[in-house]
Amino acid sequence: MNNAKIAEILTRVRAQKPLLHHITNFVVMNDTANLTLHIGGLPVMAHAKEEMEEMTAIANCLILNPGTLDEEWVHSMNIAGKKANALGIPIVLDPVGAGATKYRTKVNTDFLQNLRIAALRGNQGEIAALAGAGGKVRGVESVEDVTGIESAAMRMAEKYGAVVAITGKRDIIASRDSLYFVDNGHERMASITGTGCMSTTMVGAFIAVEKDFALASAAALACFGLAGEIAARQAEGPASFRVALLDAVANLEPEMVLRNARVTKMK
Amino acid sequence: MNNAKIAEILTRVRAQKPLLHHITNFVVMNDTANLTLHIGGLPVMAHAKEEMEEMTAIANCLILNPGTLDEEWVHSMNIAGKKANALGIPIVLDPVGAGATKYRTKVNTDFLQNLRIAALRGNQGEIAALAGAGGKVRGVESVEDVTGIESAAMRMAEKYGAVVAITGKRDIIASRDSLYFVDNGHERMASITGTGCMSTTMVGAFIAVEKDFALASAAALACFGLAGEIAARQAEGPASFRVALLDAVANLEPEMVLRNARVTKMK
Amino acid sequence: MNNAKIAEILTRVRAQKPLLHHITNFVVMNDTANLTLHIGGLPVMAHAKEEMEEMTAIANCLILNPGTLDEEWVHSMNIAGKKANALGIPIVLDPVGAGATKYRTKVNTDFLQNLRIAALRGNQGEIAALAGAGGKVRGVESVEDVTGIESAAMRMAEKYGAVVAITGKRDIIASRDSLYFVDNGHERMASITGTGCMSTTMVGAFIAVEKDFALASAAALACFGLAGEIAARQAEGPASFRVALLDAVANLEPEMVLRNARVTKMK
């Protein structure tokens, strides 16, 4: 597809500096806060009931990531989610570990049913679990390719009116009207924790500035995958890869996207 | 001013290894724990009500950073703060995101009114919000220069008897009797999350060993800014800058401080 | 001793990809999740009461690390611990800061008395505190060598039927039947926060695949120490050392272990 559009959205993220309100897990909080700054946004991590509505109200996107969920945090996510819906602020949901326990599957299903989610970003196992399409999740990792994952994504998109973005070797982005494949990325990205959560933050930053959420999600994942490719060239292991990945996101130029984004619009 | 004094305080931090009890936010906990070790102190991160008084009692400084606050954590901060006051252990407060929500403004104002704070370290927006002097905070970022921030700092220092340390392009350190400017630092420091929180930890380490809290704060910020300058020379992006910054803090020699600290005593 | 055995266990970790359920502290969660991946396992960090039993049931090892403990988290650790015991899933306990406050000493003693712990991994001060053998803990750091620490370890191992693994300049691993010394490692490992917690995760990964828990613990600490030695050669400070350490764990080859592990079986 037209990479100029992707480059243009990236430029808009940098210009508008969207504020991304994260209610997210303890493991990746530092990474996703830094990533938000590096791609051009402003992060805020906040979960207190007392400030949920007010904090959400000033955000340009709400990111719900129940990776280290408990009752209190889920409660705050619901308060924030309802406020975001009331104000038309888009929500990105990362259903970390859905399928691993009944509790995780239920919490994420409830979010999908009770909130209007702009984009659901997960791995194959998580999305398959939520779609009732099988898939195997060990802890928070998807451990095998899921047959028919594309049609599961399209069914989920239809059912909830949300963009469904599945990251993996090939990223799949489905909405009611469209289907994209993104072939940027590098296998090193699976060697560190948090790349899934980071890709969710990327989607949040792009959705905050572009109303075509499917296009925004595809653009976000192309940019992140491209940063992964650049980082892989200079890494000597997973930890130096992580440093290089964050640097590459910050140093990503629209021109690189023009030349190297690999997004296919199928529908 | 006399850089020998600053170098001497740094040497004292390394010799005395102050224990810094942090009750701090989830985003930066790893960074501030590491920074504490690198500058020469010992970190402990603890928040359980059951051990608050006992843990605070063995510390040389208490650092309160309600960046990811909630009711329970604020409660623990109050217990620790009262104990610190009772024992004469200095408290450094980092009012993360004050001004962004009413709850954050209130929690931090309550700390200032109910506890004896040795040093308040924030950005321009946060301090202006607490001083009722305007300032704009988006999430946890100060987004514009505040007119009259210097006099706001001096008024706050007068009102609460605390050192008020504002970090930015030029750091401003005000107390009832003194005013310092620190011109060390590098713009890269704004490209990662947590440099504000880290500067608070630096202030805590220096205040733990030097009774002139304004001088200690100025010295801490000069050392941290200097580490930032050194790190910026070798960084290829924000994430490699962060690694280099922490290395530079650990490798900072009194001699470098002697030559390169840029602190001006105005009063 | 025979390094081939150590290399073989490492190979088994990589082949079996054990799932390590961590209930751990906020400071190191990212490091220990990454380390789990790098050594060849799968991490999951989860603490909600609602999913504790189910999450523990799918794990190959449970890691309890009450470094930033509070009542709720201790409660979840107990639920998970009982489930692990019921199913024969080994538990590794890291008694962070035991000895620093009465609460920490009590919580960890309760775990040892109420749960069947496969391995207890701590520093000299923490183990000495739990053994009632003196030792000085400031915050979470052991600040001096403890006289008679070896016999304290052996007494603890006898009393609780657990492997007691003490990391330090020389690592000591004691069980009812055996005693190992490990002389791999580098002083740089003490310059960053979390190496203790990381060594606990290493022990967990090895215990998950090898029923001789003392041998598994010695092998784990030899591999981690060796990674520290490799990393120290290229680090310019503690933060670049941390990156290099995680890279070195991921890049560790059985062949390096064959040549360079320094484990002595004393009994």
TrEMBL record, chains A, B, C:
CDD domains according to UniProt: THZ_kinase
Pfam families: HK
Functional pathway: Cofactor biosynthesis; thiamine diphosphate biosynthesis; 4-methyl-5-(2-phosphoethyl)-thiazole from 5-(2-hydroxyethyl)-4-methylthiazole: step 1/1
Transmembrane segments: none
Catalytic class of the enzyme: transferase
Annotated Gene3D superfamilies: 3.40.1190.20
Function of the molecule: Catalyzes the phosphorylation of the hydroxyl group of 4-methyl-5-beta-hydroxyethylthiazole (THZ).
GO biological process terms on file: thiamine biosynthetic process; thiamine diphosphate biosynthetic process
Keywords: ATP-binding, Kinase, Magnesium, Metal-binding, Nucleotide-binding, Thiamine biosynthesis, Transferase
Enzyme nomenclature, EC number: 2.7.1.50
Cofactor(s) essential for the protein: Mg(2+)
Protein name: Hydroxyethylthiazole kinase
InterPro entries xref list: Hyethyz_kinase (IPR000417), Ribokinase-like (IPR029056)
SUPFAM superfamilies: Ribokinase-like
Catalytic activity: 5-(2-hydroxyethyl)-4-methylthiazole + ATP = 4-methyl-5-(2-phosphooxyethyl)-thiazole + ADP + H(+)
Residues binding ATP: R121, T167
Record-stated family: Belongs to the Thz kinase family.
Any one Gene Ontology molecular-function term assigned to this protein's record: magnesium ion binding
Binding site for substrate: M45, G194
